[in-house]
TrEMBL record:
Domain MobA-like NTP transferase span(s) in chain numbering: 10-164
GO molecular function: molybdenum cofactor cytidylyltransferase activity
Coiled coil: none
PANTHER family the UniProt entry points to: MOLYBDENUM COFACTOR CYTIDYLYLTRANSFERASE
Keywords: Magnesium, Nucleotidyltransferase, Transferase
InterPro entries the UniProt entry points to: MobA-like_NTP_Trfase, Nucleotide-diphossugar_trans
Protein name, UniProt field: Molybdenum cofactor cytidylyltransferase
Species this protein is from: Sphingomonas aerophila
Chain ranges passing through the membrane: none
Top-level EC class as recorded in UniProt: transferase
EC number, as in UniProt: 2.7.7.76
Length: 192
């Protein structure tokens, strides 16, 4: 069973935010007095990962103050798969036992949920979150999955690898993924 202390967090923050609206990037919008992209980063930074890696676009979020090593995806248009590959490449070089792949636009993920993902790992190579409808990030991948993750391309990310994952349930509200301005407004209204 992988431990958080032996694992690398890979936070994906290089998306182009095409569904959010012209001229506005969702990760820079305010939520809880921070930029949206910093909220998940701050929550996850509280966990004792061996290393924290933020894969960003050039000129994107600067998460160094939260303890993240910045890795720039020079071609965000290549899709989420490329960002996953870049982050896992760093984890592989560091000799990590596992990676937790999380999204910067999922601001309500809790540290307790991440701990449950690790607790559920056992002999499983992939453990994913579930809101009762589908497997989704954050997702934990053990070292034996690194080659598959590094081979990813396109905008599907690691979705195919999640098909056989052990699933750990979380409330739907904890796994909110903000893609549009309307979703951000609904989240602000729900959270007060």
């Amino acid at each position: 069973m992988p431990r958080i202390e032996d694992s690398v967090l890979v936070l994906l923050a290089a998306g182009r935010s095409t569904r959010f609206g012209a001229g506005r990037h969702k990760l820079h919008q305010e939520l809880f007095g921070r930029q949206l992209g910093e909220v998940a980063a701050a929550t996850l930074a509280a966990l004792p990962f061996r290393e924290r890696v933020a894969v960003t676009a050039a000129g994107g979020l600067d998460l160094a103050a939260l303890g993240f090593r910045q890795v720039v995806n020079p071609d965000p248009a290549a899709g989420m798969g490329r960002s996953v590959s870049l982050g896992v490449e760093v984890a592989d070089k560091l000799g990590a036992a596992a990676v937790l792949v999380a999204l910067a636009d999922m601001p309500c993920v809790t540290a307790a949920h991440v701990e449950r993902l690790f607790a559920a790992a056992g002999a499983a190579g992939v453990v994913a979150s579930s809101d009762g409808h589908a497997a989704k990030p954050p997702a934990l991948f053990t070292r034996d999955q690194f080659a598959r993750l590094r081979a990813l391309s396109g905008d599907v990310g690691a979705r195919a690898l999640l098909r056989d994952a052990v699933l750990v349930s979380a409330p739907v509200d904890d796994l909110v993924d903000v893609d549009t301005a309307e979703e951000l407004e609904r989240l602000r209204g729900r959270l007060g």
